Amino acid sequence: MNISTKAIVLSVIKYNEQDAVVKTYTEQTGFTAYFIRNFFKKNKSRLKKAYFQPANLLELVATHKNKGQLEYIKEARIYYHYKNIHLNFDKLNVATFIREVLLESLKNEQADTDLFRFIEHAFMQLDNEIFNPDFHVLFLLQLSRLLGFFPDNQTQGDYFDLYNGQFTDRIPPYKYLSPADSLILKAYLGMIFDTKNTEKMTSADRKRALDFLMDYYELHIAQFITPKSVKILHRIYE
After folding, report:
1. Are residues 73 and 115 in the same domain?
2. Least confident segment among 132-141, 176-185, 194-203
């Protein structure tokens, strides 16, 4: 079956000396891995390697057998060309982190138009707007909503229960955030729900938020592994 779909490139893996497996999240089929023959063989592949740079936004025509195996791309083109992500060190590192989070988070995800459009818009927003040092934290929170484990901001308390996703006045029996970290989380939730919120977060706040949100993701997504790029973001905010 031939399909036409938008796709976000998450990774390119060398399959052998000359072939590649490209992992994507597509609008029509969700998480999909494609086999590209002769990808690393000079002038032999039908598809340009430049199209498959991580985080690229593509339009694909592909052959899907839907048998749980690798699929095949017939045609590809970039439908959005980044203007400055690759020229801005901070944006590039945040884009790398987001892509690695998506690779861990979406490997079992089916097609979801809202999810695809959110991710697509996030990369375009990162590219087009002035760099926001809180972008990656807000992205993680908004992504958690679409994946089904957004923190319950209707609950109240000094502690945040990471296991149940709720604020509480009692110390939870499992993993939880301290009152100080819970205040950081509440501040970021406030930035999402109040677009006029101008609260300034410190570098230390961002580092703490990144760490506890990675713990949160590990609890709520099976086999989630914290990306190595977290260490790079920590160095940026030192």
Report:
1. no
2. 194-203
Domain boundary among 35, 56, 80: 80
d(CA 57, CA 78): 6
pLDDT tens digit sequence for 97-109? 999 999 999 998 9
Render pLDDT for 38-68 as a digit per residue (tens, 0 to 9).
888 876 667 888 899 999 999 999 988 876 6
Hey, is 124 helix, strand or coil? helix
State residue 91's pLDDT score: 95
What span, in angstroms and rounded, lies between the C-alpha atoms of 110 and 141? 20
The crossing angle, in degrees rounded to 10, of helices 89-105 and 135-147 is: 20
Report the 10 Å Cβ neighbour count for 222: 7
The count of structural domains within the chain is 2
The H or E element spanning position 118 is: helix 113-128
pLDDT mean across residues, the chain: 92
Q: Do both 25 and 75 map to the same domain?
A: yes
Whether 24 contacts 32, CB under 8 Å: yes
Phi-psi region of 35 (alpha: psi -120 to 50; beta: other; left: phi over 0): beta
What is the Cα–Cα distance from 182 to 188, expressed in whole angstroms? 10
- Residue 62 belongs to what domain range? 2-80
Q: Reduced to 3 states, what is the DSSP secondary structure of residue 201?
A: coil
User: CB count, 10 Å around CB of 25?
Assistant: 26
Same domain, 141 and 169: yes
Clarify whether residues 58 and 173 are in a common domain: no
What is the phi/psi pair of residue 106, to 5°? -105, 5
